Amino acid sequence: EAQVTQNPRYLITVTGKKLTVxxxxxMNHEYMSWYRQDPGLGLRQIYYSMNVEVTDKGDVPExxxxxRKEKRNFPLILESPSPNQTSLYFCASxxxxxxxxxxxxxxxRLTVT
Amino acid sequence: GNSVTQMEGPxxxxxxAFLTINCTYxxxxxxxxxxxxxxxxxxxxxxxxxxxxxxxxxxKGFEATYRKETTSFHLEKGSVQxxxxxxxxxxxxxxxxxxTYKYIFGTGTRLKVLA
Lengths: 113, 115
Description:
A: mainly beta; seven-stranded mixed sheet; 11 strands; B: mainly beta
């Protein structure tokens, strides 16, 4: 089954404790992206990766890191989480960026206390 | 900068009513436009899209037309069902720097359909 998987689905952590949210797709997609969803703000792009060689910041990259060492995986890293990073996070992928559909993972609900 | 503006919800309709959710955008070039739907507890899934001016996207009875002159992409459905209750997001994709693309989403419109 073609899908984007994220882990964990739920995470409660404390301020400053490094964490990684994994994202994997099995569709051989070039483009991958991370979003956060907050009430009243919709989805905002954190980072995106055009392919394994090109990764760039989205609109809200502060406090996040990503890596794209292989095509299928695109982990999101929070080196020192803070309460303002409490949010619902989605990973997405598409064959190519632009006019192609994005496929979204099921989401990771993160709470930082 | 580029942006997507959607009508605020929630929108509450009776079953079989006509639905319109407004979406307007600002962009410097020629974006592709999308409507995504999010059911409770799930990720977003594509509802329809249009990639150039005057294109009409359609799916599951929903329609939207890419209007460059009014920079709009309004979502419509002639007769909604209870199962259409969800959050709807308008989005655009545009080339940002040479060869790179960014996506911008609206804030989402919650639709509730009553039986």
